[in-house]
Amino acid sequence: MCGRYAMTSSPEAIRALFRYDDLPNFPARYNVAPTQPIAIVRIENGKRRFALVRWGLLPSWVKDPKAFALLINARGESVLDKPAIKNATRYRRCLITADGFYEWKRDRGGKQPYYARSSSGPVAFAGLWESWTGPNGEELETAAIVTTRANRRLGELHDRMPVVVPPDAFDIWLDCAKVDAETAAALIAPCPDDVLTPHPVSPAVNHALNDNPQLVEPYSPPTDQPAPTKPKRAKNAAKSNDQPRLL
After folding, report:
1. Angle at the Cα of 72 from the Cα atoms of 70 and 183, rounded to 5 degrees
2. For strand 139-149 and strand 47-55, is the pairing parallel, antiparallel, or unpaired?
3. Least enclosed by CB within 10 Å: which of 20, 117, 159, 233?
4. pLDDT tens profile 50-83
5. Marked catalytic residue, from 94, 103, 141, 191
6. Are strands 100-107 and 29-32 parallel, antiparallel or unpaired?
7. How many CB atoms are located within 10 Å of the residue 105 CB?
8. pLDDT tens digit string along 223-238?
């Protein structure tokens, strides 16, 4: 799965990889959490465009968002038939910009966070997005990260990982008008072991409001202290005035 990730490359580096015309300016993010705004790339009028949406997909048919479980990840094995995501798989695929993601490994009776970092700059996670309209006309765009079984290296931490789409397959995933869902779904597979390299990081990442470069740096857990506990979800993060934002 993927419950936290980082986007630390410069706007110029991300724009060069995804080749969109927009010129967004945004700070590095070291601890992106569910319900926060995330950067995606999608096709609009035949062109790649940058957009900000909420992390946590909300299908258009949902009546009461509070009654729908937060969908931050979409299992790749069910994207073609699961009611909550099958329409997005056919018509609203996107790429989510990232430099790595966090995973937690059970260790010494607790959970030690690890950061799986790309060594070659930003990468693209496969994503799905949706547009929801409320009863009063309010609009909300949301997205989820598509996951698959973990590769050999990351399988030591967890049995799931985000789908990493290689640059030469961006158009296959993004172009919903020309590429059908079944063809795009063929990209859902673990990336090679050398694409993302994990290392232990500070348990400070467990707290969603922590967002600084130290979070992604290698960390040696003290041997005389209990292991860190599981991460704390950013409850109602989208409503917090203190939450970090992309823009």
Report:
1. 125
2. parallel
3. 159
4. 999 999 999 999 999 988 998 999 999 999 999 9
5. 103
6. unpaired
7. 15
8. 655 555 555 555 544 4
Closest CA to 168 of 11, 2, 19, 51: 19
Q: What DSSP character marks residue 240? A: -
Beta pairing class for 100-107 and 139-149: unpaired
**Residue 38 and residue 57 in contact, taking contact as beta carbons nearer than 8 Å:** no
Going from N- to C-terminal start, the domains of the chain cover 5-239
Beta bridge partners of 52: 39
Question: Is 176 annotated in the active site?
Answer: no
Amino acid 135 reads P
CATH superfamily of 5-239: SOS response associated peptidase-like (3.90.1680.10)
* Strand partners for 164: 125
Residue spans of alpha helices (H) in the chain: 11-18, 86-91, 170-174, 181-185
- 3-class SS of residue 155: helix
- Annotated catalytic, 103? yes
First-residue to last-residue Cα distance in the chain: 26
What is the tally of helices (H) and strands (E) in the chain? 4, 12
pTM of the model: 0.89
